[in-house]
């Protein structure tokens, strides 16, 4: 719409110029209607000529001096061109007004030469400058052009000075009609060619600057026509009007070059800076303000509010199981979900509330203006309950759930970072406990700090040798002899003492430390087993648990093989325990298990019965043993369902030719029941709790007879 307005404006200006030109021509033809004295005409000539010179040097100054650090080709060459035109215009007006200027003899013929040179160079220069694309030029290039311009100008003036007496008359001289033809046709043709070139280069979008330059060229054509065709001898109003038309064209050039090389690039730079600022403070996907902007806005709210005058709530909202959605449906579906949730939160917020995207699957809302904590909690819960859980993605409706954490100023925190941090702690605590809403409490911070410290201590503990193994025997129910053992990791914390696995194993899984820890357990267990064999004890199999992260390692089989070769333990004396959940991705599980079986190790499924194993896939898995979970064995004498489950597992295993080990055997009654079910082995406190290596060696290992 703006370009259309500019086009209309320039068309009107050109139309007015044409109308004025026609009126001048008409008045010039009717000299009786416009009696103007020669002095007035001379004054008009002088004013117009010096206006052209002034405009020329203004263009030169604009291109040569201002904004030299961002000098462009068009601005530099426009400055050069109009510096030459300004000099020629001064010589022209001096010769026309009978001034002896720098030794030039003033006469009409010399004036016309200067005029023709000015118009010809102007037409050629405008065509050359604006027919090609613009680009930045260096300071070195600028100096080269400056030196060339000075030499060209001096050379041209010297030649004109030397041969001024021999210059032929260009107009109305018998035998020299070609000069008149060039003046009437050639120069306007160059102006028209320049206009066409500019229109072609800006055919997709005509900028204001390009339209201004076109207007300048049109006024140059009109001025040239008045000066060389209507009144070439300069005796009437048309010649003076032609000079003023040329002055107006110079003004348009000045304006156009300014817009094209300074104003429009500056506006473009401002637009880029605005876009960059928007990108710095807004999320690319949802368009919502980001965490950086949130910190600024929240800081402004806190600065304008004192603890005694009001309360501000900050809620962090998390999309539950977003990663599962993203992985199963694809990233584009995840992006649509994030955008939809952002739009819904924005629509549900009050005018005083602002939604932000913190990153990943988290959003935040700053809610000011509460009189008490209860009001903040009520508003937060209302917002959470108002979000429609149904989301349509690719023509399929999915139901999502959200978790929310709340922190309130000044009760929970008094700084921007504290408010955001505590709300984030609250939402993660809610997710861990399976709740949809929680407000921050100091206990969350203590627990989080404790987990961070524990994780840091765990990293150091691996290097310091704070971890050790205990061993629990696996006993044959028929012979009641030790036929195997399970290696269990323990942590002797330097400050907290002996920590149960339940305190550090989940944290190790979450942080990824379970991989180096699991590899240490595997290697250490193999070393113990090999050492006992070297000391003359009867070889038995040692069981080591694999974590989910370990099982997903692409080079797991290679790592196990490298450890076995390094320790020197035969693969048949190692059993690796996995859980049912590790077999959910059945293709990956098949590939991984077959890779391990090719090494010759045994594989068992631990805690069997608590997962969701498919019996169809179970018969195809390359496994050797099922370990019945302790939860079924514990109530086997009291609960008929547990007894039935244990009986079913043992019967199924027997038909699948798998061995069965019952975990958690604690009483004689349980032992007798398991014997009746043809269970092969048992493990539990009835036989022994997990014990250190020395005790296990002395109590459960049997020396070979020499």
From TrEMBL:
Keywords: Membrane, Transmembrane, Transmembrane helix
Lineage: Bacteria, Bacillati, Bacillota, Bacilli, Bacillales
Gene3D superfamilies from the UniProt entry: 3.30.70.270, EAL domain
Transmembrane segments annotated in the record for this chain: 12-31, 43-67, 79-104, 110-131, 143-162, 182-200, 207-227
Alphabetized Pfam families for the sequence: EAL, GGDEF, MASE3
Domain EAL: 451-704
Domain GGDEF: 310-443
Keyword Protein biosynthesis: no
SUPFAM superfamilies for this protein: EAL domain-like (SSF141868), Nucleotide cyclase (SSF55073)
Name of this protein: Diguanylate cyclase (GGDEF) domain-containing protein
